[in-house]
Amino acid sequence: MDVKLINPFIDATFNVLETMASTKATAGKPYLKRDKTAQGDVTGIIGLTGETRGTISISFTKNSILPIVSKMFGEEMKELNDEIKDAVGEIANMISGQARQGLEEMGRSLKAAIPTVIMGPNHTITHVTNYPIIAIPFTTGNGAFTIEVCFEE
Amino acid sequence: MDLGMKVLVVDDFATMRRIVKNILKEIGFKNIVEADDGLTALEVLKKDKIDLVLADWNMPRMTGLDLLKAVRSDESLKKTPFVMVTAEAQKSCVLEAVQAGVSNYVVKPFTANTVRQKLEQVFSK
Asked: Residues 57..86 of A with a Cβ closer than 8 Å to B: which?
């Protein structure tokens, strides 16, 4: 996979969290992920189609997502529930949209499906292809989350 | 901009409906109703007197774009201001919405100030 394809997802993640949740995130070093176990407690996944096929996922730990959604709603969220699940779907949707805009500027046009969200400890993430999965770890002041990107190329 | 107008917020994600409603309330709108897809929104539009629609693009059953086309082709609804609030930021999408008659276009993520400015632009035309 062309590593340049990852940058729009990193930029989109920073932008979405800062704009919608006043949250600054720091990205760690991307790595090749070899297993399917999610790094977080709640994961949003979006299928992408067009010139290529792929999947992106964003997996939040409980400690990272509760303060983010609290800031999005303007009220304190204390537990993982359906509201958090819904919010993670929308965050994934926004990151996908922003990243696809960035990819379009690089000459890559992709369409996104409606996100699905999985919640619970040690759940698995199934990407649409068997190509390498690039994981990007992030931290906020409260906890960690991970983006995974997998494209058929 | 008449803050007493009835606003319909359409999004399949409750999170986004909540955020948009909070922003509209912050601006001063008091009369806000919601729908979770385009088809439900169209039913609301046909039953109720709606003065402004803010709709997402990607939704099950009927997309925001199809809702916009349905509104613009209905004699009694076609003048309703319609703002797309969507993560679809690609130029081709914006162009498609403009061709279908969208009143304005808000790209997610957005700030409260962006929504306010886009609505002011709609009602100052």
From this structure: 69, 72-74, 83, 86
Phi, psi for A151 (deg, rounded to 5): -125, 150
Three-class SS state of A7:
helix
Cβ neighbourhood burial of B10 (10 Å; 0-12, 13-18, 19+):
buried
Residue B10's H or E segment, with its range, is strand B6-10
Q: What is the pLDDT of residues A114-148, one digit of tens each?
A: 899 999 988 989 887 778 999 999 999 999 999 99
Taking only the tens place, the pLDDT of each residue in B53-95 is 999 999 999 999 999 999 999 999 999 999 999 998 888 899 9
B 61-100 → A contacts, CB under 8 A: 86-92
**Token pair belonging to B34:** 């919601």
